[in-house]
Structure formats: structure tokens, C-alpha cells
Amino acid sequence: MSDKSVEILDSTLRDGAQGEGISFSVQDKIHICQALDDLGVAFIEAGNPGSNPKDMEFFQEMKRIPLASARLCAFGSTRRKEIRCAEDANLQSLLAADTEWVVIFGKSWTFQVTDIIRTTLEENLAMIRDTCAYLRENGRRVIYDAEHFFTGFQADREYALKTLGAAADGGAEVLSLCETKGGCMLSDCREAVSAVVAQYAGRAKIGIHAHNDSGLAVANSLVAVEAGARHVQGTLLGFGERTGNANLSCIIPDLQLKMGFSCISAEKLAELTPIAKRVAEITNIALNPQLPFVGGSAFSHKAGMHIDAVLKNPAAYEHIAPESVGNARVFLMSEVAGRSTIIEKVQKIDPSVKKDDPVVSEIVQKMKQLEFEGYQFEGADGSFELLMRRLLGRYRPFFKLHYYQTNGVNPRPEEGVCACAQIKLEVDGQIEVTAGEGDGPVNALDIALRKALCRFYPAVSCIRLTDYKVRVLDGKSATAARVRVLIESSDGDSSWTTVGVSSDVMEASWLALCDSFEYKLIKDIERHLRRG
Fold first, then answer.
1. How far apart are CA 127 and CA 360, in angstroms?
2. How many Å apart are CA 163 and CA 121, to the nearest integer?
3. b/e map of 486-504 (b: 16 or more CB within 10 Å)?
4. DSSP characters for 429-454?
């Protein structure tokens, strides 16, 4: 490996699983493992087989699922104090996981040794050395995680360095310096990593494992690489215990596009955003739109002057090409957007429309009128496209509503059911009447509409409502206030947002829901026509 190559170890399945609200099933872990392998990371730290049956089941399942290039790692601690490695149940679980690589953590801070695990400093060194050697003797390759290294380095520099020496003596190939409490400043990180590189770089690869309690996990990881580290650990989306881990979706493009290091191939880097979305979907979290590089807002522009400049030359306001990380440029629609923004979007539907075409003014005026009424299009790309299509004559309704009704159900007949909905609609002269039960009236209406349309448009079966937001627009009007509903939907490959406004929250929800289904159907038709 060249000096400009950096190994990436992703700990989403281990450290990330410690994040609040994060829980992976065995199948979730397998899917995330495959996604990370598709991204091209060097190592996947997948859990502690000695800590719970689920992790052990995962490692047994993965024996039957080959990975293209990533190396799966089991994680565990050094042997317990005053016990032989062969008698340590945790180490036996690591061997049973049958991974070529094992990540072992041990203590670097004298306080942790004497006051937490309550043993002698010499016994701690022996625990580290013995464990690494035992694993090597049993055919494993070892990454050593020096827990609390930076705190330990400040408290007792000599001893902290000795713990790394013990791991290297035992045969560890990587010495990863853990910034466990997340409070290290950049200058302190640089000093510590530089000292370790100077002493041990000839014996092992030096790594960094940073936490984000001071908001510096990414910065400390980059500083460590500048100081000579060539192995970086983190989680793809930054989640983890407390405030999270170093965010690899930031670190990888920073290293590769800004600092000239190689982490993954350029082809894999172009898959970063879709894979980030995939991992978020499996984890059942909403991807933060303001995440650098992979967030939905990372390359979004709203001000008319900014948009005009970006249309002339993207370098005016973009630090990299969105496509290099698999993302896309977005021009947000609002009252501050210029005509250039409208034209750019209109021409995707009808390339023949020019800037001075009367329909452009008509679209601008309609948009401003609707925004005055409470609509908001900057976060509702699906509804805005449908608005343009209606005014451009490029729209046809897919169904005609006769009626819908919703009712609450108490007591709950079963878990996840507290409302029902009935709907009657018409498609090409054919009437369909269906009902749905759900966890709330909007969920029930969504289910009923999907059931009604599936016979005519099977593609709607894959639409999933992923987010639902309601905002009261005029609090002074109390229960008569107008509300704005935003619905985010996904078909597994892409996502879109639609909006509805009304003084009736169910009507606003219905308007947004209809737009969501129609947007999906229009996109499918156009995709079919392009292929045909």
C-alpha cells in the first residue's frame, strides 16, 4: 500500500449500534454489511460475538455470504486480568466467529487500569501482549484499539506508549488510537499521533478512532492522517454513542477529493450518496439533509443570484462536483428563486420552452400565489413538478376521486391500528371501493389509496411514506387555522416530497398524498418511454 493510501474501517454495526434509538436485526446487519462492501471499505467491524447471541448468529450467517473485498472483523477485549487466554470466554467467542481479522481493545490510561479494571500497570501490559499473541498463534490478524489513548497520553505519556509497544510485541498489525471521550483538541491530537508515528510506524500501521463530543471527530481524523496515520475508523453516517463517531461519509471524500489520499476507488466514491441513503433506510432513520457531501441539501441552492451563478459555472458556489460523491444539484423553489431556476426545471419537462415564454411568467405567478396561500415548494419537489406539468399541458390525472372518509377506532382492535379509511375512486370508467386500517387516519388513507390503485397501477405497491410533517400556518385562528402537510415518499430507489394546504388537516394530507402517487406514476411512464 502506498503512503497516500488510507485504510477505512467502518464500525456502524458495532460502535454505531450503541447510538440512541439504533437497533439492528441480524438481517439488517447483513444488508448493511453488503452495502459497506459495495462502497469498498477495507474493514467492517461487525460486533462483539461474546457479548450477545445476535452478534454470534450474525457471524455464523456471514460464513455463508461472501464479501467482494471488505474484511469482516470480530471485536472484543483483551483477556481478563489474572486469567490465561485459553480460559477466557470472550477470546474463545472471537475465535468461534472465524474471521481472519480481529479488533481487540485494551487500556491506555493509567486511571482506567488502576481504578476501573483494578489491576496493576504491568498486568495490563501483559493482558494486551498475551491477547494479541494468542490470537496470532491461532491464525488471526489483529487490529489493536488503544482505548482512551489521548487522555492516557496526556496523563502519562510514557505508559500510554508502552501499551502500544505491548500490542506490537504481541503481533498487532494496526495500532488504532482511540479518542474515546471525544474531547481532544486538534493540536493535542496532532502531537500524540506524531509521537506514535515516530516510535511505532516501522512496526505497525497507525490508526485513529475519534468520537464527536466536541464536534471534532472528522477534523481530528484528518489531522491524524496528516500526522502519519494510515488507518481511519468511524461510522458511515456518524451515529454512535452519545454525540456519535467520526462520520466516514465526510472523511472519505475529504481525504480523497481534498487531500489527495486514496481510500476507495473513484467509481465507488460516486456511489457514496446512494449507499448512505441505503444504510439510513435499513437503519430506519431519516438521513440528515444537511450532512456534507451526501445530504439532500448538500448541493441545494435557493437564492436567485446564487442559482444564476451556478447555472453559469457550478464552481461559483460548489466546492466539488455533486456527481463525484453520487449526489445531485438541487435548485429550491421559493419566492426568492429567479427565472433561471424556473427555466432550468421547466426545460427538463419541455426543452422547447424559452426564458421569455409566457408560460414561465404564468408558472412564477401561480407559484407566488400558492406560497401566499401557505404552500412551500422548496421542500416539495414532487408537487412543484406537477404544478409545472399542469400549466405546461404535460399532465393527465390518473384517477378521479368520488369520496374518502376516515374514522378513529377505539379501543384498538390490534396493535398498530387506531383508524380506518374508506375510499371510492374511478380509473378509466372503472369504479374501485376499498378500505384500509392503519396507525392513524393518514396511514389508513394511504393504505386504502394504495389498495384501490394497485389493480390499475401495480407500481404503487412499492411506494412507502417515509416522513409526514404538519405545520399550523396561523396559530391565532386556533382550530380553524390553515395547515401545511409535507409528505416524503420513497420507492426504494428514489425519494420525493409533496405538499398540501388546507384548513382541514385530512384534506391537506389527501392533497399531498395524491401528488405523491401521481408523481411516482408519471416518473415510471417517462422512464418506460426512455427505455422503449
1. 73
2. 9
3. bbbbbbeeebbbbbbbbee
4. TEEEEEEEEESSHHHHHHHHHHHHHH
The residues pairing with 426 across neighbouring beta strands, listed in sequence order, are: 400, 431
Measure the CA–CA gap between 68 and 64, rounded to whole angstroms.
13
Give which of 335, 430, 422 is closest to 377, Cα–Cα.
335
CB 275 within 8 A of CB 39: yes
| Paired residues of 175 in beta bridges | 144, 206
Q: Which candidate, 479, 13, 9, places its Cα nearest to that of 230?
A: 9
Residues in the chain: 532
For residues 500 and 507, is the Cβ–Cβ distance under 8 A? yes
Number of Cβ atoms within 10 Å of the Cβ of 295: 18
The 10s digit of each residue's pLDDT in 82-114 is: 999 999 999 999 999 999 999 999 999 999 999
Cis peptide before 458 (omega within 30 of 0): no
Element (H, E) at 67: none
SS3 358: helix
Q: H-helix or E-strand containing 496?
A: strand 495-502
Residue 321: Cβ-neighbour burial (10 angstroms; 0-12, 13-18, 19+): middle
C-alpha cell read off for 147: 482505548
Q: What are phi and psi of 102, to 5 degrees?
A: -130, 140
Please tell me the distance from the alpha carbon of residue 247 to that of residue 211, in angstroms, as a whole number: 9
The candidate with the shortest Cα–Cα distance to 200, out of 232, 227, 233, is 227
pLDDT tens, position by position, 258-300:
999 999 999 999 999 989 988 988 888 878 889 999 998 888 8
Are 454 and 465 a contacting pair, CB within 8 Å? no
Residue 247, C-alpha cell as written in the block: 462520520
Alpha helices in 73-183 (DSSP H): 89-97, 110-111, 121-137, 149-155, 157-169
> According to the 3-state scheme, what is the secondary structure of 223-281?
HHHHCCCCEEEEECCCCCCCCCECEHHHHHHHHHHHCCCECCCHHHHCCHHHHHHHHHH
**C-alpha distances in angstroms, 81 versus 129, 135, 349, 391?**
12, 17, 69, 75
Kindly report, residue by residue over 52-82, the tens digit of the pLDDT. Answer: 788 889 999 999 988 999 999 999 999 999 9
- In this structure, of 223-227, 228-232, 485-489, 507-511, the range with the lowest mean pLDDT score is 485-489
The strand pair at 483-490 and 495-502 is best described as antiparallel
